[in-house]
Amino acid sequence: AQSVTQPDIHITVSEGASLELRCNYSYGATPYLFWYVQSPGQGLQLLLKYFSGDTLVQGIKGFEAEFKRSQSSFNLRKPSVHWSDAAEYFCAVAGGTSYGKLTFGQGTILTVHP
Amino acid sequence: NAGVTQTPKFQVLKTGQSMTLQCAQDMNHNSMYWYRQDPGMGLRLIYYSASEGTTDKGEVPNGYNVSRLNKREFSLRLESAAPSQTSVYFCASTEGAYEQYFGPGTRLTVT
C-alpha cells in the first residue's frame, strides 16, 4: 500500500526567507506525486505534480519540488516566502491501478512572520 | 465554468439524524471522490466512483453511502450521523492523469 509522511507538522519562517517542506513516500513503483495548498476555510489547490521525466518540477506561485527516488522524497521549496504563502500544505501520492486514488500526508502548516 | 461545487457549505446535525452532501462537476470528468479532513490526519478517502455507474469503498467508508447519480453528480449520505463524523468533507474529480480538482468543502458538526 502507498503512504506519505510529512515529518513537520508546523513550520514558521520569516517573510523573504527560503522554505523547504519535506515529504517522504512509500510506493513500489514510480509514483505520481503532488503538492497541494489549502488556505484557511478553502479547498485544495494543486501547486505542482510529478509524473515522469525531469526530477525538478516547477509549479505555481514560485514553488518547485524535486523528486529523489533514492531517498523516496519529494520536497517542496520556495526561494523567498511571501506572507500570502501562509497555509497548510499537503503532499500526495498515486500510482498503478489505484484509479487515481490519492493518499495524502498529514499536512504541514506554514506560518510566515513579517 | 464552476469546477466542483458542493452543497451545503455548513451543516449542524444531531446524533442519529440523516443528511446528504451534494457534489457536482462541470468538467466532464469520469472519476469522482469523497474525502474527509480531520486535524493532523490529512485527507482520507471515503468512497470513490471511477466512472458513471460504479462506486467503491475507500479507506474510511463505515457510516456512509454514496450515489453516482450521473456523470456530473456524486452524493454522500450519512444515514445516522454520529459525533465521530464531525469533519470537513471534500469532493473531488479527475480525468485520467490523477490530478484532482477539489470543491470548497462542507463543514459538518454532529452534536
What is the element layout, followed by pairings?
The complex is a heterodimer of chains A (114) and B (111).
Chain A: E1 3-5, E2 10-14, E3 19-21, E4 24-26, E5 32-38, E6 44-50, E7 56-58, E8 64-68, E9 73-78, E10 87-94, E11 103-104, E12 108-113
Parallel strand pairs in A: 2-12
Antiparallel strand pairs in A: 1-4, 3-9, 5-6, 5-10, 7-8, 8-9, 10-11, 10-12
Chain B: E1 4-7, E2 10-13, E3 19-25, E4 31-37, E5 43-49, E6 56-57, E7 64-68, E8 74-78, E9 87-94, E10 101-102, E11 106-110
Parallel strand pairs in B: 2-11
Antiparallel strand pairs in B: 1-3, 3-8, 4-5, 4-9, 5-6, 7-8, 9-10, 9-11
Number of E-type strands of chain A: 12
The Cα radius of gyration of chain A reads 14 Å
Characterize the main sheet of chain B: 7 strands, mixed
Judged by helices, strands and strand pairing, the structural class of chain B is mainly beta
Sheet bearing the most strands of chain A, described? 6 strands, mixed
Distance between the termini of chain A: 41 Å
Structural class of chain A: mainly beta
> Could you say which overall geometry of chain A the principal axes of the C-alpha atoms support?
globular
Order of helices and strands of chain B: EEEEEEEEEEE
Q: Please provide the ordered H/E string of secondary-structure elements of chain A.
A: EEEEEEEEEEEE
Mean pLDDT reading of chain A: 91
Tally of helical runs of chain A: 0
E-strand count of chain B? 11
Q: Average pLDDT value of chain B?
A: 93
Give the count of helical stretches of chain B.
Answer: 0
Low-pLDDT runs of 5+ residues of chain B are none
Q: What amount of the residues of chain A lies in strands?
A: over 45%
Helix content of chain B: under 10%
- What global shape of chain B is seen? globular
Tell me what portion of residues of chain B adopts beta-strand conformation: over 45%
